[in-house]
Specification:
Strand order of the largest sheet: 5-4-3-2-1-12
Structural class: alpha/beta
Number of helices: 17
Largest sheet: 6 strands, mixed
Radius of gyration: 25 Å
Helix content: 40-55%
Length: 532
């Protein structure tokens, strides 16, 4: 491919920029791929966010220098493919739990997903390339930021959505992340592109324009430093106790898992005290069926009233247990047809106070898309079982005595920005039981980062309970107050953090992302016309 020189003022055309960029312009496909992969280190667990900004800045340069729209799209897709290939490496571990699914697919699945996910950075690159000028400038960067917001939102919405690792999460180690309470995740992703563009403009010695663009994330970080004053918590205030048994729920064969897990959960649940305790157990923690009314042959793991009374014996008069489990569903003939991934609330009188059924199920995890076709070629869902899970009605919660309203997000549901709180029923906090034993090391840390972003956006504490980690208590500013590392048994107990007043994002949701994207795009158009 011919080298396309950078059209910059003569006094720097022969300078270091052209020399340093020679490799990128001569091998744009290779460097797009490498930059996309390296950019993934800005997310948890590494959090090397300056590296990500530098990679995105260099990629903006490569896209700008594309000789045509096809080349720009190709460079955009290669960046996205490598970026999501590395960021989703943790998915490979999930395939080791299901003998009906070839384990070798674990090495292929992240690549197959990346083939699709790379389309979204590709689209952003194509839109921005249409706005390019003689050299990278403000309209080009603004159009790139606008397109990135729009395409990242679409990535989180189309085909049930997969908004894992939004670019905004690189801000979590910085004060800029706190501005998600006003603008939300997708808009902050656009700000990340803007900051990377400011780096590129600084390299091309467009100092004033670079400073103007860099001013936005700096101002956001400065305003975010004004954290609300801590609320004084009474000594007898309700407390939450998070239990992490560190028993991998999916390890097989283990016939005594249900009993061993319940004993471990009971051992770590502590003793009643003067304050009401909300004891939270992980997703799928309870393998005994707690509900009455099923045909007798389905109680293969013990009578439900015995299970409930064993749990009730752990509790003080005002204590409540929230536990993950399963509810069964039957057809008209009384035959078992499906199950739900559920949360049960149980009190000290062995009563079930309510149940929440997961609404946003994981494709290939809790159900197999196009089951007749895919099962015919030997594929199965990753969670062992003969039938698919059924979805609940969606986002919801329960009103619990002494604790107020609790909102629920089971595992994967927490990653969807703007879709974690039931409209008109704002809870006091969110409870997210999860089974992160499926995830590789990177996935566990990335999942925790997503929960922190939801806490900031909504101004609500998030309580996470997982069987093998990382369990955590997160306050309404997204700070991890206490946590249990991966692969360790334990429990943490603290007063339930208070909720913040409803944030701007809690009121407007992702309408803000649309507004910010439109503002960036209109600014790009206006500046381009003004320059002409």
């Amino acid at each position: 491919m011919l080298r396309v020189p950078l059209p910059v003022p003569g006094r720097i055309a022969r300078g270091s920029l052209c020399r340093d960029s020679a490799g990128m312009t001569e091998r744009p496909a290779l460097f797009s791929f490498l930059l996309g992969g390296i950019a993934a280190v800005g997310f948890a667990p590494l959090e090397l966010w300056p590296v990500t900004l530098g990679c995105v800045a260099a990629w903006l340069w490569i896209v700008h220098e594309a000789p045509g729209i096809r080349a720009a799209l190709w460079r955009g897709w290669l960046f996205g493919f490598a970026h999501f290939l590395i960021g989703n490496n943790w998915i490979a571990k999930a395939f080791t739990y299901q003998d009906a699914m070839p384990h070798a697919l674990g090495w292929i699945a992240p690549g197959v997903m990346a083939l699709y996910l790379g389309v979204f950075p590709m689209a952003a690159a194509g839109v921005a390339w249409r706005f390019r000028g003689a050299r990278p400038d403000a309209p080009y960067v603004l159009s790139f930021a606008a397109a990135w917001i729009a395409t990242e939102y679409l990535r989180g919405s189309l085909f049930t959505g997969y908004p894992w690792n939004p670019l905004a999460e690189i801000w979590l180690p910085t004060p800029v992340a706190a501005s998600a309470r006003s603008f939300g995740t997708y808009a902050l992703s656009g700000v990340a592109v803007l900051a990377a563009g400011a780096v590129l403009l600084a390299v091309t010695r467009q100092w004033r324009t670079s400073a103007a663009m860099l001013a936005l994330p700096i101002l956001l970080g400065m305003t975010a430093l004004e954290q609300p004053a801590p609320t004084r918590i009474a000594a007898n205030a309700p407390r939450v106790r998070v239990v992490q048994p560190d028993l991998d729920q999916e390890q097989r064969p283990r016939d005594d898992y249900a009993e061993a897990n319940l004993r471990q959960l009971a051992r770590l649940s502590g003793k009643p005290g003067p304050a009401p305790r909300l004891i939270v157990w992980p997703e799928g923690a309870l393998r005994f069926l707690p509900e009455d009314g099923y045909p007798r042959q389905y109680y293969w793991e013990g009578a439900p009233y015995e299970t409930r009374h064993r749990i009730a014996a752990l509790l003080g008069p005002k204590d409540v247990v929230l536990t993950g489990g399963n509810a069964l569903m039957f057809d008209m003939a009384g035959t078992l047809s499906s199950a739900t991934n559920a949360i049960f609330a149980l009190d000290s009188h062995a009563r079930i106070l309510g149940r929440y059924d997961k609404g946003h199920l994981v494709p290939f995890g809790e159900y197999l898309p196009a089951r007749p076709l895919l099962s015919a070629i030997g594929l199965a869902r990753l969670v062992p079982g003969d039938f698919d899970f059924s979805a609940g009605r969606g986002v919801g919660g329960l009103d619990l005595p002494a604790f107020g309203r609790v909102g629920f997000q089971i595992c994967y549901e927490i990653i969807f920005s703007g879709a974690v709180v039931e409209p008109g029923h704002r809870p006091a906090f969110l409870f997210q039981p999860s089974n992160d034993s499926w995830f590789g090391y990177w996935g566990q840390a990335e999942h925790l980062a997503q929960a922190r972003m939801r806490a900031i956006e909504e101004g609500l504490p998030v309580i996470r309970a997982t069987p093998t980690g990382i369990s955590a208590i997160i306050d309404a500013q997204g700070r991890v107050l206490a946590s249990i590392p991966a692969d360790r048994p334990g429990a943490i107990e603290r007063p339930i953090p208070p909720a913040a007043p409803p944030t701007l994002f809690a009121r407007l949701g992702n309408l803000i992302a649309l507004i910010v994207s439109a503002a960036f795009l209109l600014s790009a158009i206006a500046l381009r016309r003004f320059a002409r």
